[in-house]
Amino acid sequence: MESSNPHDPAGGQHRTHSEYTDQLQSARQHSKTSEEIAEAYADVADKLARWQELDRLFAGRYRHTQFEQANGRVLDVACGTGRNFRYLESAVEVVGIDISNAMLTHARDELDRLGLDGTVQQMDTQALKLPDDSFDTVISSFSTCTFPDPIAALHEMERVCTPEGEILLLEHSRSDVAPLAWLQDRRAESHYEKNGCRLNHEPRATVEAAGLTVENASTAFFGLVTAIDATLR
Q1: Half-sphere exposure in the Cβ direction for 218 (13 Å, CA)
Q2: CA distances from 39 to 44, 101, 150, 199 (A)
Q3: Averaged pLDDT for residues 47-55
């Protein structure tokens, strides 16, 4: 992935910090509830599991690059059907959590198929029932755009991560190509209503708003994919 600064105003396609903060606050106020998100994903869990090979073809290289360094005890937040599990080559134990039991059914199968030492549990990302400082690495992929309150979710990821650990994110993002960004903005509201996903999400700005330290950030595929390595405050 190429490194980039999402606050660079080149081309005029990036929103100011103030504009994005206002959007983030508005999004939290008008978000779906965790229960609504769980219901939405229950309806598509089987379909997403069938698309595992397609995801591997298009997103596998990004998942591998971002998560191969995840080590020790690893928490996969909003693990879905377990698409990240195969890339956790350095993990000694994997714990996957998700709001949707339907998704976790497939994640359990993936753990068993890969022979990984781990478990999956139903849990709300914004209120993790896990001890402080209990994971060496916390990862999440294509998920902060769906959390009702992404700041609260990131604070929970920080809480359960050891002080010397890191949080690794792989997210879709608002494009750094102006016409694509315009299209994402135009479709954002209807897309969220249908899919519970914020199409024009800016993950680095969200991570910074949560107070985490961004050690490295890179983008790919016209800025539509963002990888972030963050450490604790």
Answers
A1: 10
A2: 9, 10, 19, 19
A3: 69
